[in-house]
Specification:
Triger factor/SurA peptide-binding fold; alpha+beta; four-stranded antiparallel β-sheet; three-stranded antiparallel β-sheet; 354 residues
């Protein structure tokens, strides 16, 4: 299965086809207003990365594709736009760096992968006369982009490959990340729900609350919570179990019920709690504290998590080193300026230490 990152590379490769098939207006709508007159055979350059040139048109196409997903809800403000423009620029530069490195390592693109993707495009547009007209024009660019996608994927697979951790590394990872191996706390809760239709008049809700208070009084005087739940509770899933809802993790109750239960100690009952479906009384019957799993029990999972974390660390470090050692020149003249943060009387950004 291809990674999400690889799929995004492929979507950029296909964007040119969509634009030529009639999506030009949509792409132009999403892209920043950065047009300027240039000769048709000399597209403006956005960046040079080693021996690779990224044209402004490449940048605009990538921006348009990403902006349609990010800003579908409306037009971004200038600061959002400025940050996003730079994110797309950095992404394209990173992709070019990876292609440079893959080629320097003499890696070869997966010809079958490229063939399959082009075949999908042909099948998808088999009945589109416009595709037949532009196919020869866009095929070289699509092929190049798909080959570069394949090269990046191969390089990433090589770089991310890490050896299995030794016992010392594994134990260190376990000790430094206890939250990853801690079983969350649980609370066993029971409920009596006095059902009230949400559209009922206020007096109906008042009667339900008064009856709930009477039940609380009975329980505190020795009556069985379970027997009263079986008799009066409108919660079908728990009433026949004496109101028992079983063991719940934090967050499973949500909102008002959880806040009410959090205040209780085992054996205690809440005051009446208004819910959308009626009036409830909760009882905390048992509380299990979070427990750190024994190292030997989670050793296998720790190994998988270590490998993932180490792979991510190595990959990010690798990209950073490529950026440092490769000449990169970017034309930032078309970016919207980043906002300058306000400063305090010390000349430092707000909140900075004095």
């Amino acid at each position: 299965m291809k990674s999400k990152q690889t799929r995004s590379y492929i979507s950029l490769a296909m964007l040119a086809v969509g634009m030529l098939l009639g999506a030009d207006a949509l792409a132009a709508d999403a892209a920043p207003n950065v047009s300027s007159p240039v000769a048709a055979n000399q597209p403006p350059v956005f960046a040079t990365v080693g021996k690779i040139t990224i044209t402004q048109r490449d940048y605009d196409a990538a921006y348009a594709s990403a902006a349609r997903n990010k800003f579908y809800h409306g037009k971004p403000n200038d600061q959002e736009l400025a940050v996003f423009q730079r994110e797309i620029g950095d992404k394209l530069i990173t992709e070019a760096l990876l292609v440079n490195e893959a080629k320097s390592r003499k890696l070869k693109p997966d010809a079958e992968f490229v063939k399959q993707k082009l075949q999908v495009q042909d099948e998808r547009n088999a009945g589109n006369p416009r595709w037949q007209q532009i196919r020869a024009q866009v095929l070289p660019k699509m092929t190049q982009q798909l080959e570069e996608t394949s090269l990046r994927s191969k390089l990433e697979e090589i770089v991310r490959k890490v050896p299995a951790p030794n016992q010392k590394q594994l134990r260190k990872f376990y000790d430094e990340n206890p939250k990853l191996f801690t079983e969350p706390g649980q609370m066993r809760v029971s409920v009596i729900l006095l059902s009230v239709d949400p559209s009922s008049p206020p007096e109906t809700w008042t009667r339900a609350r008064d009856f709930g208070k009477d039940l609380i009084k009975q329980i505190r005087e020795g009556a069985s919570f379970a027997e009263l739940a079986a008799k009066y509770s409108g919660d079908a899933s728990s009433a026949q179990q004496g109101g028992d809802m079983g063991y719940l993790h934090a967050g499973m109750l949500n909102g008002v019920p959880e806040e009410a239960v959090k205040k209780l100690k085992p054996g205690e009952i809440s005051d009446v709690v208004n819910l959308m479906e009626g009036v409830a009384i909760f009882q905390l019957t048992e509380l299990k504290e979070p427990v750190l799993s024994n190292f030997d029990r989670v050793k296998e999972r720790a190994g998988a998590l270590w490998a993932e974390a180490e792979s991510n660390r190595i990959w990010e470090s690798f990209k950073e080193q490529l950026r440092k050692k490769t000449p990169v020149k970017v034309d930032e003249s078309r970016y919207v300026p980043l906002a300058v943060p306000a400063v305090n009387n010390n000349g430092a950004p707000p909140g900075a230490a004095k």
